[in-house]
Design brief:
- This protein has 207 residues and is an alpha+beta fold.
- Helices cover 15% and strands 63% of the residues.
- It is built from two helices and eight strands.
- The protein has an eight-stranded antiparallel β-barrel.
- It starts with a helix and ends with a strand.
């Protein structure tokens, strides 16, 4: 988690600097036939944006080496920070709480629990279709997975892992001025599991 917070701080600094450069360029340029103002349609498609979303997170086969089939299948959330310098491309960072799960296995014994979270950075390729964009994204995820299996008198298996994995996703989004809404799917691998799958509905705001 400390690695993720340091990464997030660095990313915020980079995004702040990028926003400052973009704002300076905007002030020094002319748009829309020399009127000296930026076209509102273009402004809605590009710039710094933030967002938040509801996530249905699934991390299948946690502790798969033990054959219990335990999984996380939970409601979770996502925070979004991105910068879209041109309509077909953006860079984006997400913090995702992947949820947690606790339940008895094999009739109640052993008892399993697990929780997971991730911080990821993407390059996003977009196909603008008027007020709707189709997009795909790929990058890296820094994830943390913890949990364990406990029997009647002792801990059978303890798990506290973190690592970095390739992550990819695809989605569709619509925008109305600076407001946007998106539906997307993402997937990345995590050792000791069958992989993480995220189904997200989110809203964004472009500055």
């Amino acid at each position: 988690m400390q690695h993720s917070m340091r990464f997030l701080g660095l990313w915020l600094c980079i995004m702040g600097a990028a926003a400052g450069v973009a704002h300076a360029q905007e002030q020094g340029s002319t748009w829309s036939g020399g009127r000296g103002t930026q076209d509102p349609a273009i402004a809605a498609d590009t710039g710094l944006y933030v967002g938040a979303g509801y996530v249905r997170a699934q991390v299948n086969n946690v502790f798969d080496t033990n054959g219990y089939g335990f999984k996380i299948d939970d409601n979770a959330w996502k925070a979004i920070l991105g910068f879209r310098p041109i309509p077909p491309f953006a860079v984006e960072a997400n913090y995702v709480d992947l949820g947690h799960q606790s339940e008895g296995l094999l009739g109640g014994t052993p008892f399993g629990h697990a929780d997971a979270r991730a911080f990821d950075v993407f390059g996003v390729g977009l196909l603008p279709l008027g007020p709707v964009d189709l997009y795909g994204k790929a990058g890296g995820a820094r994830w943390t997975l913890s949990g364990g299996l406990r029997g009647l008198n002792n801990t059978l298996f303890a798990l506290n892992r973190n690592g970095t994995s390739f992550v990819w996703g695809a989605g569709i989004q619509a925008h109305w001025g600076p407001l946007g809404a998106r539906l997307e799917y993402e997937h990345f691998q995590m050792p000791y599991t069958g992989g993480a799958r995220l189904y997200t509905g989110a809203v964004t705001f472009t500055f």
